[in-house]
UniProtKB/TrEMBL annotation:
Organism annotation: Nocardioides bruguierae
Coiled coil regions in record: none
Record keywords, A-Z: Flavoprotein, FMN, Monooxygenase, Oxidoreductase
Protein name as annotated: NtaA/DmoA family FMN-dependent monooxygenase
Lineage, top ranks: Bacteria, Bacillati, Actinomycetota, Actinomycetes, Propionibacteriales
Positions with a binding annotation for FMN: D56, T102, H152, Y156, S227
Domain Luciferase-like: 24-389
Presence of the UniProt keyword Flavoprotein in the record: yes
Length: 436
């Protein structure tokens, strides 16, 4: 059976690209102007990507050794600029591709979130989406006057209430509330704009929003819940779910689980697109690609080891620097951070040493290596096995050269096979995303 068409998206941050790479060029100097992401998204649109997604956090982590040193040395979580103001700039120079930015339900008051997102939806002509996260690091929380985040599952209760309010605010102006009646002089009809009078456990919001919602109304929601509570939340609200899972059978299992949960909430599972992290390694020949793979993920470079350890420490809030690299992967760890990430890591690496676990951790998704044609074959085969719905590309390394290898090599090959879109037939991002 031939694979069904699937979606491509790109996972990135508003942070420094791989500036040390021999192909880094001037990206290390110019990324803060937005120019790097601008050139990237233009290529992505030509290559039929559904959206670019900006992950976000607001901390300088000291989870490794109680110091900020490694986080700053590797530019892991800082510097990181706020992606919200970048989206309208990216939209001005592209036509249709979707733009997703992250907003935390623990830190953003729902009214501000609803307003800034709806404003961006107007500015972009209906092309933005919201990546809903609950945040998982106390060092970030402490920037907002919160000493300690709520317990993991309760953060999702708060997120439920938050998202519910945001949706009500987006709906607080009826679609025909703006009348602009020149005879009577009415701009808006007050009977069609209603307060929401929300009083809940975590928030109190009067409403209405002081502006009509954008072209998409309720915006497309992106989510990445991995724990049982997080999966329920994602299945209930999300149109796109992004997943980091290198094991193919677990990719399939995750997608099927999400689809079953979506049905439980009365949703059409086809309205929830599950996209899997992937960093294909691409060469002009198979040998060249494998050579690159070894350089990137062979974990021979002490700097690479340090970086992966610090990255894992920051999301799990566990100081991986204090464990012996050649001892078995520790199995007694707990966190109030990304619980499913930690549980998955312990399970997957129970027969490995910490050092042996690093290569897979660095790759995030399943291993795909080869020429543009063979990478396209592997992606097609993966989708057939998993059942859908597409990939979330993470550049490795993040250089213009890598973006070109995907957008001028792999994606056109997938487009020629009819597996990736060549056009965006609808007016809004949400309609295009849900069209197949
Ligand atoms: C692809 C992907 C992107 C994510 N982006 C963010 C992000 O931008 N900010 C954030 O705080 N968490 C982010 N997360 C973490 C998730 O929101 C979530 O906490 C994590 O997947 C663990 O699931 P759980 O919360 O159900 O335990 C991301 C996770 C994945 C897999």
């Amino acid at each position: 059976m031939a694979a069904k068409p699937f979606h491509l998206a790109w996972f990135t941050s508003f942070n420094p690209p791989s500036w040390r790479s021999p192909w880094g060029g001037v990206s290390g100097e110019e990324w803060m102007t937005g120019e790097y992401h601008l050139s990237m998204i233009k290529q992505m649109e030509r290559a039929g990507f559904d959206f670019i997604m900006f992950e976000d956090s607001t901390m300088v982590s000291d989870a490794m050794g109680g110091t900020q040193e490694l986080d700053l040395k590797h530019a892991l979580h800082s510097p990181k600029l706020d992606p919200f103001p970048l989206l309208p700039m990216l939209a001005r120079e592209t036509e249709k591709i979707g733009l997703i930015a992250t907003g935390s339900t623990s830190f953003y008051p729902p009214f501000i979130l609803a307003r800034v997102m709806a404003t961006m939806d107007h500015l972009t002509g209906g092309r933005v989406g919201w990546n809903v996260v609950t945040s998982s690091e106390d060092v970030a929380a402490q920037n907002y006057g919160i000493d300690k985040l709520l317990p993991h599952d309760e953060r999702y209760d708060m997120a439920e209430e938050h998202v519910g309010i945001v949706k009500k605010l987006w709906e607080s102006w009826e679609p025909d509330a703006v009348v602009m009646d020149r005879e009577t002089g009415h701009y808006a009809d007050h009977t069609k704009v209603s307060p929401i009078h929300h009083e809940g456990t975590y928030f109190k919001v009067r409403g209405p929003l002081n502006m009509p919602a954008g072209p998409q109304g309720v915006l497309p929601i992106c989510q990445a819940g991995g724990s049982p509570r997080g999966r329920d939340f994602a299945a209930k609200h999300a149109n796109a779910i992004v997943v980091t899972q290198p094991i193919v059978s677990k990719m399939k299992e995750y997608r099927e689980d999400i689809r079953a949960r979506a049905e439980k909430f009365g949703r059409d599972p086809d309205d929830v697109k599950v996209l899997f992290h992937l960093s294909p390694v691409i060469g002009e020949t198979e040998d060249e690609a494998w050579e690159q793979h070894h350089r990137l993920f062979g974990m021979e470079d002490p700097l690479a080891i340090e970086k992966v350890l610090a990255m894992t420490a920051a999301v799990t809030e566990i100081d991986f620097g204090k464990y012996d690299l050649d001892a078995p992967f520790p199995q007694d760890l707990t966190t109030n951070g990304h619980q499913s990430v930690l549980a998955d890591l312990m399970e997957r690496n129970k027969d490995k040493t910490l050092r042996e676990s690093l290569s897979e951790r660095a790759q995030l998704g399943p291993q795909v290596v080869g020429t543009p044609t063979s990478v396209a074959d592997q992606m097609e085969a993966l989708m057939e096995e998993v059942g859908g719905d597409g990939f979330l590309i993470l550049a490795a390394p993040h250089t213009r050269r890598y973006i070109d290898a995907i957008c001028s090599g792999v994606a056109p090959e997938l487009q020629r096979r009819g597996l990736v879109r060549t056009e965006y037939p609808h007016a809004t991002f949400k309609e295009n995303l849900l069209a197949f």
